[in-house]
Amino acid sequence: MNFFRKSSCILLAFVIGLGLAACAQNSADHSDQQKSRIDTSATQKNQAKTSSTQANSASHASVNWNAPSGGTYPVLKKGENIWLDVSIKQQKVYIKTGNRTLYTMIVSTGLGTDPDNATPTGTYYIQAERGQWFYTPQYNEGAKYWVSWKNHGEFLFHSVPMDKNQHVLTADAEKLGQKDSHGCIHLTVPDAKWVYEHVPFNTKVVIQA
Known about the structure:
Blueprint: H1 2-59, E1 83-87, E2 92-97, E3 100-106, E4 122-125, E5 130-136, E6 141-150, E7 155-159, H2 170-173, E8 185-187, H3 189-198, E9 204-208
Parallel strand pairs: 1-9, 7-8
Antiparallel strand pairs: 1-2, 2-3, 4-9, 5-6, 6-7
């Protein structure tokens, strides 16, 4: 009787041992699978983050402020009725005739962090005031080829900002395609010159958020 009881105990202990070993193995396998899923998820997140960073970098790629931002300029017909469609969201100015876009310029509009540095939205018209150069000591900056569209010299189209010696302020110029100005609309130097030379008095300007 004692022999059978002892043998049963030994057999039971052996079976329990096998069960525990199997559980341990299953737990280890589950842990490995879970770790694999976590590693895979982390890898996917890192890849997504990298792609997002690359996309953001691409969207804010530096614009050559000494070149036309949209390629070859259009040749306007004499008396052609154009208007300027400004998108704050896209940071672009579309030169249009009717609904057809003739040319697209990359710009910087107002920072928009407070009313004093926002580009006002609405419909305006090119005013009589324009010039080849201005400098504002208050902001320690100036610009070339300015054209007024609101408040007779307050809100302008003009080139990227420059210092008093007409050297481009690269920190601002590199932000073409992003909000940067005090409310005016920054353009590459050739784009500003084109607007100065080709956009006549009383041309409609529509500025959209």
